[in-house]
Design goal:
978 residues, alpha/beta, Rossmann fold, Nucleotidyltransferase, domain 5, 5 domains, 6-stranded mixed β-sheet, globular, DNA-directed DNA polymerase, 3'-5' exonuclease activity
């Protein structure tokens, strides 16, 4: 093996952005035939194969006409990083990876090791930070650096010694897909950065701070695009100068936004600036290229059935691959093991629902998709004839297409329909793209609606969709009701929650070996994007009809999967009936008083200005409060505050925990810094942003509820997220003052009290807790009394607070370290508390141990109502990751059962209110809380109905050992009602 040596002049260091490469290899593999993307047992391997091909190319030949002397493959350790600490919503909009990519992640790292390399990653940092650190160190040593990536965030690192190499993009798709072909590989230097960003690399961070990044959820400054940002930075020199002189800008809106969102721009700069001083375990010398040992690589390739790679490496090194056995560690890995464990009946043996479902799945996959054969229907008689076919097949798949925008802000452009495999069509209602479309024949909605209406409400014809909540609401807003409803994503979710994504593309790829078109294929992206109403009819037909075709093929297959997994009841009682309820809630929205938000924003601005002045006075100078470096210099170097913590890079930590500890020690500056961060977050995320979310047509905010986004059945809220509005601080609670009832009406808040603790008491069968809940006692005081042997009467509030922290912490698997940090006590004391807790309530420990054993054996856990939460990676060799999955599995039956109870309540409340002759309507669900709008004179009656339904929601399916408690109140605003 070649001796390790640090790089210097004449050397070239290759830094491969492994995390980015993984996804690009996956999407490129989607072009390939199935046989190249899966091992014989069904394990997806296509992305790993392409990844290995490229890494072998780097090792053997280099790239961009350069052969590396040093090579590093760098990955993201996890989604959590120091940026999340600064900005909780950083990358919060990212969706989970595709189903068939997840089991390939560990194989990617195994591939790196098979090549004799070390997969490099570090908790708390992103791959880009590690790349930045290596690039700086290598360039300082006189070596050349080639960063193998297409990530624009890395362009800030480019200089005379550091360049980027963008390999073939892998974004091409099959012919006729409408997407561009594979982009050729290219070298990126300073000139290419200037061409892309309009500034030199040293100014890239300032430009990104202004424009933000939708991919990473970096906010930036509203209304400023890349071109404008480059012009501004070119004119003023840097971001700080620009913000300091923003009042001199002539364009009014631009000036106002720069002044108003200055803090947001500074935060964005902190988020996009890479940390090039990460303390790394592997020095540059350890990246030295060594001669490849062919045997481990060939053994790995054989285990994954990579025949071409096996032969290529064997030929290149002159070895007989027939004498090398497949690496046994990778013969059973990824999806293969969980599938066998979860459904053992799929092996040969007597027929069972599972074996019948497997056979049915194989039969239902059907033939290939012929997008050119789809029909465009622009005639009423032809539409009626097409719909008549639905009566014969008993199924009608729907796929609405919106003219431009979201459901609540757009008219219908058209409707995709399918009645059987390959029998699909698109009905254009409105395609008026001006110069983009001329002489288009459509079937106006007012003519199509009377033909559609009888079929859409025919209970003998199942209506199915890949996005039924969207389709139901879009058609409802167009005056058309739809029933009965089925959703393929919810079927998949009920069967496989936690085992992958449930979107149409993922399901089509997984079950039909088909990659459907997406919006980008027909509408384009970026500045070239056009509204769907402007898409040529041929493309619109392929897109809309294909989605309906996918849904009609998947529906029977997934229905069989529900039977095989024994979760039909979950789908029929918890998913399907809730779908129209949520759609009507989204339609109703909640009234928001813009004036209240505006006043709050102004008040927050004044408060921030006051706090900043106080911070500068305490610090003795002005500085960038959002800068970790400047802040740490003030706190620990200038002021010399004790108790500071340094990271491994030698930099001081200024995270929330550090500031809270300093504040608790009586130092005034950290107190003000925490206050500044809190107010800044409230202003940018809520009082400013919510004003933009008010629908101009309704004056209301219409959130979107996601039903299949969590493993446990909890709903989530997006665009905007109304479930994260803070309530633990006085300033945060004020946000709810802006959510108001119209004149003559009241908002009602109905909130389950301690529902997860009640579920825990039932599941774990804890006599003390069960009796306390039954007697209506203070559960936290009782816990403190049981643990510390002190009477409930006259209890010190601090003791009760500690018991409360343990009660809720136990549900989420809190560690001694976590409890110590939360209560501000030593680890040993926190550990003693937890030990004493389990001694007083031994049933909880028994429940935890039994749950861990069950999930290891089955790969999933269940709620009280039969919902399965899958944890396919529970057997991971990584101890910290395994512990994480075990904690999640312990929590899932508790949180999932609570989520199921509130789902059951939501399904029952609407008919109960109607039966009582009340017009009260449900607006929001915030985890354990429901929000309603009621006429003022029926608020009391509505509260009575709501409370009765909620407290009995578990029955008759489950008779809880503890009573459910609901606190319901009415008020003029959400804050007043809560």
């Amino acid at each position: 093996m070649t001796d390790q040596r640090a790089p210097g002049a004449g050397d070239t260091v290759f830094l491969v952005d492994g995390s980015s490469f993984v996804f690009r290899a996956y999407f490129q593999s989607m072009n390939q035939d199935r046989k190249y993307n899966y091992r014989a047992d069904g394990l997806p391997t296509g992305a790993v194969r392409l990844f290995c091909n490229k890494i072998y190319q780097f090792i053997r030949d280099g790239a961009a006409d350069v052969t590396p002397t040093h090579l590093a493959i760098i990955f993201d350790k996890s989604e959590e990083s120091f940026r999340k600490e600064l900005y909780a919503d950083y990358k919060a909009n990212r969706s989970a990876p595709p189903d068939d990519l997840v089991p390939q992640f560990p194989l990617m790292r195994a591939a790196v090791e098979a090549f004799g390399l070390t997969p490099i990653e570090k908790a708390g940092y992103e791959a880009d930070d590690i790349i930045a650190t290596y690039a700086r160190e290598a360039a300082d040593a006189g070596a050349d650096v080639v960063i193998v990536s297409a990530d624009k965030d890395l362009m800030q690192l480019i200089n005379e010694r550091v360049s980027m190499y963008d390999p073939a993009s892998g974004e091409g798709r099959r012919a006729g897909s409408g997407r561009m072909g594979v982009r050729p590989e290219r070298r990126i230097g300073v000139d290419e950065v200037v061409e892309y960003f309009g500034v030199t690399p040293d100014k890239v961070v300032d430009v990104q701070a202004l424009i933000g990044d939708a991919t990473d959820n970096v906010p930036g400054v509203p209304g400023i695009g890349k071109k404008t940002a480059a012009q501004l930075i070119g004119e003023f020199g840097d971001l700080d100068t620009l913000l300091a002189k923003a009042d001199t800008i002539k364009q009014q809106k631009r000036r106002e936004n720069l002044i108003e969102f200055a803090d947001q721009a500074r935060l964005s700069r902190t988020l996009v600036r890479l940390d090039d001083h990460v303390d790394l375990e592997w020095p540059l010398a350890s990246l030295t290229m060594c001669p490849l040992e062919p045997a481990p690589a060939i053994a790995f390739f054989k285990a994954l059935d990579f025949g071409t790679l096996t032969r290529r490496v064997a030929d290149d090194f002159g070895v007989d691959h027939g004498k090398i056995e497949a690496d046994p560690r990778y013969l059973r890995m990824g999806d293969a093991a969980p599938a066998a464990r979860d459904e053992p009946e799929l092996a040969a043996g007597p027929a069972t629902p599972e074996t019948l479902a497997a056979t049915m799945e194989a039969e239902l996959k059907g033939g290939p998709f012929d997008l050119a054969a789809y029909e465009t229907i622009t005639d009423g008689e032809r539409l009626a004839a097409f719909l008549a076919d639905a009566a014969e097949t008993g199924i009608l798949a729907l796929a609405t297409r919106l003219a431009d925008g979201t459901v609540m802000r757009s008219e219908l452009a058209g409707l995709g329909l399918a009645t059987a495999e390959g029998r699909a069509a698109y009905v254009p209602f409105r395609h008026d793209g001006g110069d983009l479309i001329s002489d288009v024949t459509v079937l106006p909605l007012e003519e199509a609606a009377p033909i559609l209406a009888p079929v859409l409400t025919d209970r003998g014809v199942a209506k199915v969709s890949a996005a039924m909540k969207r389709d139901y609401l879009a058609l409802r807003l167009a005056g058309l009701e739809v029933t009965p409803l089925d959703d393929i994503g919810l079927m998949s979710y009920a069967a496989d929650a936690g085992a992958g994504l449930h979107d149409m593309s993922g399901l089509a790829k997984r079950f039909l070996d088909h990659i459907p078109l997406d919006d980008r294929d027909v509408m384009g992206t970026g500045k070239s994007r056009i509204p769907f109403a402007a898409v040529p009819l041929a493309d619109a037909t392929r897109h809309g009809a294909e989605e309906a075709d996918v849904a009609v093929r998947l529906a029977p297959l997934l229905r069989q999967r529900l039977v095989a997994k024994k979760v039909v009841t979950v789908y029929e009682t918890l998913e399907r009936p809730l779908l129209p309820v949520l759609a009507r809630m989204e339609e109703a929205g909640v009234l928001v008083d813009r004036d209240v938000l505006s006043r709050m924003s102004a008040d927050f601005s004044q408060t921030l200005a006051r706090i900043e002045a106080e911070i500068y006075e305490l610090a003795g100078e002005e500085f960038n409060i959002g800068s970790t470096k400047q802040l740490s210099e003030i706190l620990f170097e200038k002021l010399g505050l004790p108790g500071g913590k340094k990271t491994k890079t030698g930099a001081w930590s200024t995270g929330a925990q550090v500031l809270e500890e300093l504040a608790a020690a009586g130092h005034p500056l950290p107190v003000k810094l925490l206050e500044w961060r809190q107010i800044s977050k409230l202003k940018s995320t809520y009082t400013d942003a919510l004003q933009e979310d008010i629908n101009p047509g309704t004056g209301r905010v219409h959130t979107t509820f996601a039903m299949a986004s969590t493993t446990t059945g909890r709903l989530s809220s997006t665009d905007p997220n109304l479930q994260n509005i803070p309530i633990r601080t006085e300033e945060g609670r004020k946000i709810r003052l802006a959510f108001v009832a119209p004149e003559g009406r009241r908002l009602i808040s109905a909130d389950y009290g301690q529902i997860e603790l009640r579920v825990l008491a039932h599941i774990a069968d804890i006599p003390q807790l069960t009796k306390a809940f039954a007697d209506g006692l203070d559960i936290h005081a009782l816990t403190a009394s049981e643990m510390f042997g002190i009477p409930v009467e006259g209890m010190d509030p601090m003791v009760r607070r500690r018991a409360k922290a343990i009660n809720f912490g136990i549900i989420y698997g809190i560690s001694a370290f976590g409890l110590a940090a939360q209560l501000g006590i030593p680890n040993a004391e926190a550990s003693a508390y937890i030990k004493r807790y389990f001694e007083r309530f031994p049933g909880i420990r028994d429940y935890m141990d039994a749950t861990k054993k069950y999930v290891r054996e089955h790969g999933y856990v269940t709620t009280l109502f039969g919902r399965r939460a899958h944890y396919p990676e529970i057997d991971t060799k990584n101890p910290s990751l395994r512990a994480f999955y075990e904690r999640a599995a312990i929590n899932a039956p508790i949180q999932g059962s609570a989520a199921d109870i509130i789902r059951r309540a939501m399904v029952r409340i609407e008919p109960a209110l109607s039966a009582a002759g009340l017009s009260t309507r449900m607006l929001l669900q915030v985890h354990d809380e429901l929000v309603f709008e009621a006429p003022q004179d029926e608020a009391d009656a509505a509260i009575d109905v709501i409370r009765k339904v909620m407290v009995s929601a578990a029955e008759p399916a489950v008779k809880l050992k503890v009573p459910l408690d609901v606190d319901a109140r009415a008020g003029a605003s959400w804050a007043e009602a809560h």
